[in-house]
Amino acid sequence: MKNRISYFVMWCFAMLPLAAGSQAIKNGAKETLELANKVQQQILQCSHKADLIDQQIIDREVLFLRFNNENINQLLQSKKVLNDGQVKVLNTFRTSVNRCRSLSSQFPLVSMSDLYQKYYQQIDQIYDGLIEKKMTIGEANRKKMKLLEETQSKWSAIEDSIRKNNAAQ
Known about the structure:
The protein is mainly alpha-helical. The protein has one domain. It contains 6 helices and no strands. The protein has helices spanning 2-47, 52-62, 72-77, 84-98, 110-131, 137-168. Helix 1 runs antiparallel to helix 6 (137-168), helix 2 (52-62) crosses helix 4 and helix 5 (110-131) packs antiparallel against helix 6 (137-168).
């Protein structure tokens, strides 16, 4: 009997950090989501600081930056590769928005930061394919569309997990 009590006490102490973590999620789910939203807004604001003319050229001729882009269908179907001027603009744009990537380390959960890092790696592959003329504008836009859909789905799953952990507490 004494052994059982000892094991039970040890088990309780072993589970204490897990319970404390669960409580932090319960009490902090709203705060976690708010902080994540704040970081996303900072990344977006930083990205908007790229040269406006470059953004307009990229959005109109190379890669959609807005889902409500009036040229999105044309971009998705284009069989053209970038010309030298578009390569230059894409390189300038890329350099400008790359400075915003470090903000993703401020996400409250590692899974959120990891998701953004994976997105950045994959969008870099798209940029490289365009710059090296190994990919058409249409192919790049279709890959970007798919990447955004996958990333959004994974982001929603992370948010749902936070909410479920909160509800289960």
